[in-house]
Amino acid sequence: MNPSTAARELPRTSSASRARTMMAVVKASAGPGAEIREVPVPTCGPGELLLRVLRAGVCGTDLHIVEWDRWSQGRIKPPVTLGHEFVGEVVERGAGVDRFAIGDRVSCESHIVCGTCLSCRSGNAHVCENTRILGVDVNGGFAQYVAVPAANAWRAPANVSIETAAVMEPLGNAVHTAFSGPLSGCNIGVTGCGPIGLFAIGVARAAGAARVIASDVSPYRLELARSMKADAVVDVSRESLVDRVREVTLGSGLDGVLEMSGNPQAVRDGLAALRNGGRLSMLGLPKEPFDLDWNRLVIFKGITIHGIIGRRMYETWVQMDHLLASGRLDIRAAITHVMPMEKFHDAIALLRGGNAGKVVLVPWGLEGGGGA
Amino acid sequence: MNPSTAARELPRTSSASRARTMMAVVKASAGPGAEIREVPVPTCGPGELLLRVLRAGVCGTDLHIVEWDRWSQGRIKPPVTLGHEFVGEVVERGAGVDRFAIGDRVSCESHIVCGTCLSCRSGNAHVCENTRILGVDVNGGFAQYVAVPAANAWRAPANVSIETAAVMEPLGNAVHTAFSGPLSGCNIGVTGCGPIGLFAIGVARAAGAARVIASDVSPYRLELARSMKADAVVDVSRESLVDRVREVTLGSGLDGVLEMSGNPQAVRDGLAALRNGGRLSMLGLPKEPFDLDWNRLVIFKGITIHGIIGRRMYETWVQMDHLLASGRLDIRAAITHVMPMEKFHDAIALLRGGNAGKVVLVPWGLEGGGGA
Amino acid sequence: MNPSTAARELPRTSSASRARTMMAVVKASAGPGAEIREVPVPTCGPGELLLRVLRAGVCGTDLHIVEWDRWSQGRIKPPVTLGHEFVGEVVERGAGVDRFAIGDRVSCESHIVCGTCLSCRSGNAHVCENTRILGVDVNGGFAQYVAVPAANAWRAPANVSIETAAVMEPLGNAVHTAFSGPLSGCNIGVTGCGPIGLFAIGVARAAGAARVIASDVSPYRLELARSMKADAVVDVSRESLVDRVREVTLGSGLDGVLEMSGNPQAVRDGLAALRNGGRLSMLGLPKEPFDLDWNRLVIFKGITIHGIIGRRMYETWVQMDHLLASGRLDIRAAITHVMPMEKFHDAIALLRGGNAGKVVLVPWGLEGGGGA
Amino acid sequence: MNPSTAARELPRTSSASRARTMMAVVKASAGPGAEIREVPVPTCGPGELLLRVLRAGVCGTDLHIVEWDRWSQGRIKPPVTLGHEFVGEVVERGAGVDRFAIGDRVSCESHIVCGTCLSCRSGNAHVCENTRILGVDVNGGFAQYVAVPAANAWRAPANVSIETAAVMEPLGNAVHTAFSGPLSGCNIGVTGCGPIGLFAIGVARAAGAARVIASDVSPYRLELARSMKADAVVDVSRESLVDRVREVTLGSGLDGVLEMSGNPQAVRDGLAALRNGGRLSMLGLPKEPFDLDWNRLVIFKGITIHGIIGRRMYETWVQMDHLLASGRLDIRAAITHVMPMEKFHDAIALLRGGNAGKVVLVPWGLEGGGGA
């Protein structure tokens, strides 16, 4: 099923008619797996919004949680409703919330921050020392309803498809990574063409990169990179990134690399393909520590490396909103699957298989969401 | 005559066949006017290149010099060959020059700087305290040949038209102004749609602005602004810039203004249309001092104002080269007239009349350059 | 009376013993003047702190409000308790406040911001479009008690005097102005040696300026500038700022000017004393619009002008805290008077006379605060 | 012997009296060692200065060259006169040099750059792709005379000692590293207290750091760090850097780390001691590739890593000049030995032993320089 643009046609739910329970994807216990079950509809506390979820994106992190990897074991406290990428319609406003109206379509920043630590007070709330994440630490959006702090809600641009609105959180990762260094008139490499890498190709182009060169080892993902209008795509299982970059940039090299794979060789190749004085911004999470030839790849070249996490709160959202609302950025080609939330486990299987861009889920009770 | 793209078809001149004299547009004496006359072909000193001029752009400054305004009276020491925007073909290399080849097509930075003052040593060579300008302080490019320091030469991207290559100097003004603050994902206003304003529209779009809003009072120039793909054009003789900006930006206001007019009201309107925290970059030269309501327009809004002169040497050229060589930036719609250099006075009249974008001249002896 | 450092010796007030009313300095009606009167002790709402005021600073803005100038007429809605610079002891915590303890000494950011406008969401909360100011729009700190949002409270560094803690708000103006451009190793001018200018001298020195050159026309204030350890002080009624700067900087000129006077000639002199490429940061509010020779002072020199308002929330507070807590910054020489709050009108007279640095008030009931 | 301040008392050499040969420290052949021998006095080409060397600093790189390590084997083409840190007196000016006078005392940038590559044209000449280094690729300053491009010469501030002037090149490394991120009001760590680390302590303090915390494993070097006025020194063989940083910074952590050791554990400790969002600037050269836990130390914390090489040409020199000429920066405590150049091999032994800060050599024929 293709993404629809008919976001405004969905029926609205009156508060009175809401049920007391709802369907949700829940991490129910400490171990592999996740359950689809009936749970209470969340209550809407002071400063919160209750959203009827319209669409939700599936992330690699969800896969890790289902597989119960080491990170999940240390972080997740079941039971918790999963889902940290979603768009919803405001159906109730908690005490003190006046800047949203019932019926507003809002996307959400997933990081709930303390506002008072040194990071928060230094304009770096995205690295708040006390962050709680929706769908990880508190109940998230793989459900019919979700309660979120109004401070985390962002009114989705009116012109974008509902599927695009659903994935503004990971799109924000791509924007944050791209905007962490110069873009205008720059030659930009994107190493790793998973969903966020694909988004980053679109962002770099919309944000004024002179050339965008994408690399991966999967023909499927490289084809998606082409659909996102990369100027060149490089299959690093068969070609040298450095050589192709030299050719495409007429010898200049890359001004910046957006590292989306977490792959050690991709990091090394990206550094090697940078011009002296360039920057590499790392969003991809390596599976384990890895080494670099610091002298050759970083110090002698005067390189800057940025560790990137989350999205700037909320500079990134402003930038993303402008790019989307003006029509400069269109990420629909990277959203390859839209399926009922009921089929969550199929979506996870798709991710595991690697032949998917971004997968978006439709909750129970909505057209395309399956039965409820 | 339209700009041609057939730059590579021009015949090359062998050193042996060069005449001892050439035709040139010369500011011959201290007073209004300029003369077309025969002068010696320049010699090519150590570190210099001798160029056969292929095309040259006419600038408002040339108009001022012909009219012999106050600035010209204080600056120009006749006789001097005019012309500070041009592209030429290398026909001779002075001692010590090895990075250009005979036949290379090069555009030129017009500022010859000392390299040793505090500005030059601080990465601000464009505000060198000892600048000499080609076509102003030393003989320039309104001639069949011109000698330039090799350090000032820039190999023109192979894919651009020869007319585009001729105006990289003023295009660099537009790039420098635009790049003096954030562009990616920004709402950018351009106040004043003369040639550099028109270039700036193209630059801001290519460099990733979310929206570009151009303003002027001339229907002719606003039409050119549309051709350069401004997202909105505002005739400020009939509409409020602030109101149109609010509408087009969905209430956000402008993140940046590129001020190209030197008009006091344009500066005030631009400041008023900025969002809090925005920036205004001033390239346009006001005719005389003018006042601002600093509190309301600058201080309470937390605005940054950048005074802009010249082009960064040579960061701006790198940025411009990337935008042109990648095909992201196309300024041909702003080049409205190409005429023989012989008709220099007609070109000046065109500028005076205001119904012209950039005017480009073809020297004697070239196709389209008239007789010699 | 000299500032005391014995901040920790003050007695604490138990919640039970608090009276229902208190003494305060109140702007009671729309017209010149201010009244000392008995008013109710504020209640402490959700998210708020109730502070027993320990010291409060008097600002030029308070003078304007008493004199009922045009700005006050448009902004102030009497009755309102004045005072936007103060330090207090936490005596009560509203619902949901857990990061302060009873007895904490806190200074306060005076701007209460919305958190949701474009400025707030772009990291520019200090230019929030919906700002309300303590002591201007809502009841302030010229009183025995004040209620403030916990988000605006800043635990004062333990090592600073209570008078220093009282004036962190205006000190933050100085820090914000100074930090709006490069400081380390820079030659910095401070034009205008009122309290914030004096603070700025100390800040620029502590923050690594190579040389700090202060200018004013008042011998009294220039003497205070010397006490704050300016490297040179210039009486611009008798000397040329440009000439003295050239001499003191060995010909380099100023890298930055912190403009604290609002005086048009000071702005022009400051711009003239800047090296090419320098910056001028304007905090001083001009009384009315004034003109500049933009070409000569701003554009040809490639100058950047920053309009400065408030303090960055809360980057400026972090920077200020580090400078104070490390002992690098000591502003006590700029605090020239400490007097009972009862004598508010004497304090205002001192400001009007011009022979005062920062004046600090001691509320009723505290040692040095007069009878109650 | 202590550094002298009597720089201006040295006798001047007339051109006529100069001998045809001089003494020098020469890397004579491909293998371990270096020779003191008589060689011709260099000629002074166009654009060059001939300097009588007054003092020269010994660098760890000189040790590597003597030991003939792998890097030296790949880089050095014997014979070459060593020495890339020195101050000299101008005794002859080549053609076209007019901004220095005979008798000027000049320090030298050691990187001779091409001026035309992308790095040079992008304001990053310090990472020029065609750099040649004095004393490495071309004859250097361990000699009685040296010829240098006038563009590389920097008139030493009149107030500094001749030994300080001799080591502006490595001091510039420290300035460049420190200035590659925020300093004013910041908590700065310096990992590694060799000569450049010691300089960096002084630079960070002079440039406005709130606190400077130095770490090493050598009691000798930590004592020198104390002499350079580090606020705290940490012997990481016995204490945890993270713990001490937490204590000294009152829990804030470091805003920046200046990494001067090349030691993998120092890099990891430095990253761990950074606050979220901090920066680590790496000047120290690791002996071999090493690994990091990127997720924990870089990505989740939003860290920026800067690879640092050389000095910015010539922004760093301007900054260094301001810090020295204003008297803010005094590095004399880090210069522990001054000895005759004749005793070069003793100096190398001192470096190898580790119980030395910066070692400065006095050429033959000067007071303190031994016989000639």
Question: Summarize this, please?
Answer:
4 copies of one chain form a homotetramer. Helix content of chain A is 27%, strand content 27%.
- The tally of strands of chain A reads 19
Structural class of chain A, by secondary structure, is: alpha/beta
Helix tally of chain A? 12
Distance between the termini of chain A: 19 Å
Helix content of chain A: 25-40%
Rg of chain A, please?
A: 20 Å
How much of the sequence of chain A is in beta strands? Answer: 25-35%
Shape of chain A: globular
Q: For this entry, what is the oligomeric state of its chains?
A: homotetramer
| Largest interchain contact | A-D, 35 and 35 residues
Care to describe what's here?
With 372 residues, chain A is α/β, with parallel strands linked by helices. Helices cover 27% and strands 27% of the residues of chain A. Chain A is built from 12 helices and 19 strands. In chain A, strands 3, 5, 6, 9, 10, 18 and 19 form a 7-stranded mixed beta sheet that branches. A 6-stranded parallel beta sheet of chain A has the order 13-12-11-14-15-17, sandwiched between helices. The first copy, chain A, is globular and about 65 Å long. The two termini of chain A are 19 Å apart. Chains A and D meet through strand 15, strand 16, helix 10 and strand 17 of A and strand 15, strand 16, helix 10 and strand 17 of D. Strand 17 of chain B pairs antiparallel with strand 17 of chain C.
